[in-house]
């Protein structure tokens, strides 16, 4: 599939991609030739904080709205791809412990994939949001030869999500939790300063990638340390959570404190990719998240720093590429649609 963009009425069957988030849903339509029929965000309230019943109804409304937008008859839809934040099983059952987005008790162990399938009467193919973004990045980058390549993607957000794609398909794992790259523990040599405390992750691990390369890692671990080194910095006067969110703007202005923090994040991801190089030896390393949405000079510096700290053998360096996840705000919905299209084509 070539994943071209073209807004038109489809002449053949299609699949729909639905990206479920903490506040909004986004939707897209992908036809059988690999063309997306939507070239922009189609956001609508996700209502996940109102419980499963209303959230599933909101997904159904987003599904119907994108069909109306693209003048696509319901009879042409073969399947729907759905992605949500994790943790969840490969079958789309939310973790028994819930999660940040699915915090109400009613969500614990809830089968969101099955509930949506029952509501709309079509097959629903599930991925977590990071896996969906990784799948889209892979297919967009490699195009018609995607099935001949592998990739690893790190998506830096509130946490650190990821995805491993082999032969053009996401590796899901026995429990559906493969690609949880944020919780890979990495060597700290070359990442932390002398005397800097070992970062702690909310998952209970110490020194995993997410404890450094995430907004949570900045808030809990990196920024409190670096503010002791820059006590007169303007961010020292801000509440730590707000300061963490403001930090990227300072990074775009080459602020020394911000570059120290983001430099540690980039080096941590380089350590992660070094592990991937020795484990799966992928064709491409993708980076997504807030750094992709930053100013071009800053995101280029960040990706270059990741590349510099990914230790590859000469043969690997000649064969692999480093790239940013494209169309990040659309990547989840588009990746979900790609997964649905693959499911239909392989049936």
Automatic annotation (TrEMBL):
Gene3D superfamilies: 3.30.420.40. GO terms for molecular function: kinase activity. The keyword Transport does not apply. Keywords: Kinase, Transferase. Pfam families: ROK. Transmembrane segments: none annotated. InterPro entries: ATPase_NBD, ROK, ROK_cs. Belongs to the ROK (NagC/XylR) family. PANTHER family: GLUCOKINASE, ROK (REPRESSOR, ORF, KINASE) FAMILY. This is Putative NBD/HSP70 family sugar kinase. It comes from Krasilnikovia cinnamomea.
């Amino acid at each position: 599939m070539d994943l071209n963009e073209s807004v038109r009425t489809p002449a053949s069957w299609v699949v729909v991609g639905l990206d479920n988030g903490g506040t909004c849903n986004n939707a897209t339509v992908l036809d059988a030739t690999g063309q997306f029929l939507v070239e922009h965000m189609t956001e609508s309230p996700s209502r996940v904080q109102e419980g499963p019943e209303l959230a599933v109804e909101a997904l159904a409304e987003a599904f119907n709205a994108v069909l109306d937008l693209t003048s696509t008859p319901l009879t042409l839809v073969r399947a729907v791809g759905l992605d949500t934040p994790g943790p969840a099983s490969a079958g789309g059952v939310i973790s028994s412990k819930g999660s940040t987005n699915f915090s109400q008790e009613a969500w614990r162990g809830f089968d969101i994939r099955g509930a949506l399938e029952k509501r709309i009467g079509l097959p629903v193919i599930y991925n977590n949001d990071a896996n969906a973004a990784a799948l889209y990045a892979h297919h967009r980058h490699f195009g018609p030869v995607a099935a001949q390549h592998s990739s690893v993607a790190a998506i830096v957000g509130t946490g650190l999500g990821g995805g491993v794609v082999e032969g053009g398909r996401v590796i899901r794992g026995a429990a559906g939790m493969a690609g949880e790259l944020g919780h890979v523990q990495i060597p700290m040599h070359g990442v932390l300063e002398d005397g800097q405390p070992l970062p702690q992750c909310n998952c209970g691990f110490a020194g995993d990638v997410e404890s450094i390369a995430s907004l949570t890692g900045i808030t809990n671990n990196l920024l409190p340390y670096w503010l002791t080194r820059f006590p007169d910095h303007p961010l020292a006067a801000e509440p730590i959570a707000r300061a963490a969110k403001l930090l990227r703007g300072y990074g775009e202005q080459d602020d020394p404190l911000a570059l120290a923090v983001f430099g540690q994040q980039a080096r941590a991801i380089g350590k992660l990719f070094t592990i991937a190089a020795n484990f799966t030896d992928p064709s491409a390393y993708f980076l997504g998240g807030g750094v992709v949405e930053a100013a071009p000079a800053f995101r280029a510096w960040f990706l270059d720093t990741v590349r510099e700290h990914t230790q590859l053998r000469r043969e690997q360096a000649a064969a692999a590429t480093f790239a940013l996840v494209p169309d990040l705000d659309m990547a989840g919905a588009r990746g979900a649609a790609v997964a649905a299209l693959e499911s239909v084509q392989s049936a």
